[in-house]
Amino acid sequence: MSSINNLNINSVDEFFDNIADYEEDFSFVRNNESAFYSAKKRALENNSDSSTDNNFEGEVNDDQSETTAGTDVDAIDSELEIAQIDTKNLSKCVIIDLKDGKLQKCNSDEKLRGLWQLIGTWQLDNLAVNQAGKELHKLGICYSHFMFDQNKLHKAGAKGGKSVNQSLIHSRRCRFCGKDYYFFSRGKYCEEHSWNILGKEFRLACICQKGCNALEQIDPIITLTNSNNKYNKTRYVCCKCYEENGGHIYIRRGHGKRGVHCSETENHSGDVAASLELMGNWILQVAYEGNSDLQERILAVITPALQQLNNTDNSSQKSKSSSSKSNIENNSLQTINLSSENKILKTPSLFAIKLIFKLYSINLNKLNSKHSYLFGNKLAEFLLKNCKYLHVNKVFLENPQSLDEYQNAIPTELYNFFEGIISKLLFNRRQIANRVAKSRKVEYIPKEVNQKKLQKISTMLSSIILTIGFTNTSFWLTQTLTSLCRKPRLLSSLHRVLESVGIISHSITHERKLEIARMSISNPQSRIIAGPKIWNVCVIDNIDFKQSSFTWGNIYDTTRTTSHAILRLLFQFVLPIELSSISNSSIELTENTFIFGQNQEASKVVHDFGKIIEGFFSWELNNESILNWNYDFDMEIINKKIIEIYNTGNLLPPANIVILEAGGNPNNNDDIAKACDQYFTDLNINDNENINICCDEAIFRRIMQYHLINPRVCPLLGQWHTSKDMCSVLLVIFSSYGIYNLAAFLGVKFLDKLEQVVDYRSTCRVLDLLWGAVGCALNIYAKKNNLCFKDIINEENNLLKVWYFFFEWGSYWKGHRVGIRTGNSLLQIQCLAAFAPLFPSAGKLNYMKSTTNYLALLAKYPKLCTLLEYASSVNLTRDGHFYAFDEALETFGVKYIKENITGNIYNIENLKRQIKAAQAERERMDLLFGEFIGDIVISRKDRAVDGRHELFWTLIKSLLTAFDSSNPTSLPLFQNCKELTESGYTKLFSCYNRGKERLIQIYRQEVLKIDPVNTKGRRAKEVVTTKAKDIKNTKHASKKCPPQSEIESTITITTTGANTTATTTTTTINTTATTTTNTTATTTTNTTTKRTRRVTTEQEKAILTPYLKNPNPSNEETEIVLNSLINLPSNNGYWTRSKVKAAWGYVQRKNKDK
Q1: How much is the pLDDT for 813?
Q2: DSSP state of 161
Q3: Which of 204, 486, 546, 1060 lies at a 20 to 30 A Cα distance from 1067?
Q4: Whole-model pTM?
């Protein structure tokens, strides 16, 4: 005998499933009943209903279990022999039978006998068998069942056919419900009630087969078994499933009463139709599954059934066809043959057909995609055709008084569809939860499905479908949810609503716990890529949060909580060459090293921009030799042409972006240094490599101090912040030369916001329009006067030269910005170097120092310039559109962080943890956003902006008029421009060179350190500036005294005394245009007479007194009084309807106060 360990069986279940296949190796069980029983018990416990597995989603209900196709045996397949021992301590009858109309244990104690004395197959009570344990001989049966088994259920003499020594208890799994039951039989089978169905052995309790022909012999499909193989594989069905699937258990009527056979009732009246339906479903399933061989065989078998159509027609009416006699005879012969076959074959019962499908693991309830689609399509068609139902119930759908009222207004067909799905799913969950709870508690009350939750979910799903299909109806539920989304303070309520209907999986509290767990294990370093061609650009910036409201208390002595951190970002570029191939040598800086001022590249930019603008004019002379040009272009067209020329293309793949763990306080030098050093750890950089850290100007100054201590940290000045300050420089320098007037001419309303560069994009837009208009005006002026564009600077026209400098310096700014947007490092650096001398002229202390240090670093480290040639900007959103490193961090990084962090952000540790995990958390959402709302890319196209084409060309014409004017300050465009004087022109024309000299001093003091540091006068400006508020105040003053006017006014002066007399005098006031201090215009002012109070005459009082006493005068009375006052000789146009009514109102208020 071989050992059981050599059987290569994976589990106890598999062992018992295949017990018949291992007959020889299993013979030891007969000699070791205890070992066999223990193994059986463990197997039963493994398949117990009270499983405590918490994996709810992996479990199914008992009535949903399916046997894997091709499985020929049950999971539990074992026999226990019953010892033939007479005992008086027998248990009550353990037979399962119908009692009081219910299938249950007999439990009778009438003349008990041992179970082993029965002949047929009976289902036993599971609990009684388990309680008997090894003493199976104590299982009893009542006298009634004993006699029925021998005298009614089986033929005479059946008892002597088999020895009582063959009495067995079988543990079998029902093929329908999948539950395990105990069955008794004498021997392996009952000769009268055991069947072979299509080659598979089947057993059923004998009492189920008395009085009901659910199973009867139909050769060759159903035959009585002739197998006596002790270990032959058998299939069983429990009594309960037998009744539920078309069979009927015989009802014992008692002594002297005749039993009722199913053929005497109508119990099977609908079985034929149900059987055809099952067969039809099976045929459809075969058709959908695509097994062509099986399809052909089945079609060949069922095709002859079509003859029944002809047979039916012949029996219902006479044939009117003129077919030949031979065809009629052939058809008749086929019909006769089919009829004769039908007489031989019997029709299988509904239970037999169900049993066959179950034995062959054919699941007719399995859904297929085509049926599901067709059903959904038909349901949609039904809803569309019955839209009148929605119209009738529109009031309840849009404004219900309760959820029940709203649910009743939903089409029943749609609601019931979802209710059926949800109720089954909730019932399954509740059953699993009940089983688990039952295994954990001694006293347990099972819970039912929450019907209110079922209603909520079904109503929600129905509302979604109706909202999609009928947009003209404002469905209450979806409309309310839309409104709720607009109320941030009620988002928690929205969350609970969605949780209640299962749209979101769990509560906010649980999500908070999960989020903390995810954040704790988040590791941003895992996103970092390494390689010899990787250039790491580190970017840091300040990120701060302020409470949206004050804490509870006095707002006058409490402040809102704020938190600050250093946001650390990493851009990783894959270069076409290895970094080690770039020379790491440095250049020693000297006094002669050129780092700022006009240069060849910047001069070329000014020249090219002028040529680009000139190319749009298409100059031509008409017959009268008058110069004409093209007006059909504006700044949008000019900018597109510039980008087209300078966008040479950056072939690097998109950068890998990593948000690293945040640093400490950005206003602390030590924390800045720690944030820089952390990059060495994150990137695992050795001692011979440097890091490049980009930042704004404020942090740049701090890192420059650390650079002197640790040269391995090389700072990069953020070019977006620099470009922003360049805008401010242009506005400051030209503030007293009319730039704000030009901006107001274009429609800018808030000059103070423009002055402060509150919005970078808007400021750039305004400066772009001004630069383009000035460039066009200069080109037209040069063409009219036959000048070369660059020779304008040599003209005597000072105003023309002022705006030529604006165009030139504005070209440096624009070239720098174009360099950022196209990723052109040479354009960025050279235009910044050319623009740098303007920072001192505008008094930009910090930027004049930081720019000098930055340009010096670029000149000292050629490797840095080489790296910037490959990647001076980063592409985030679309091809050909780049962002400066600091701009990307400021615009997208800070925004990205603030959009993706939650909870207590005023706790610095929690804030750092959330910043560290922000990228990982957002990636969890990217699939959702990308697939449902297409929001993977933040910005995909250019903004739609107003081209201001008409204002643009109107400004150009006004500039041309001013350029040709001998006195431009007299024009509205240049009024209140206090520096349009000789001294003002001199300051402007010399400010560039003076600013360059000051930069050289800073370069010698801060960089070369050959001169002592002297900060005196660094904040001084080379030009006189004008604030936007000063211009506003000047305009208000000019309105009070209108310029260039001669006003003749007649003023009545009343003198007070004993007698009041009126004297009329005429004063002529000659005024000219008033200007602000330091203007060349002559100001002439004459003091106007002070306005005096008018005194009502006695005649006027006499007319007004009756009217003023009237509490509610009519309009007619008011007109009469007004006409009387106008006709008085003392009236000088003073009295009007409003003044009369005002006098009446004054008197009424005065009387009321008394």
Answers
A1: 97
A2: G
A3: 1060
A4: 0.62
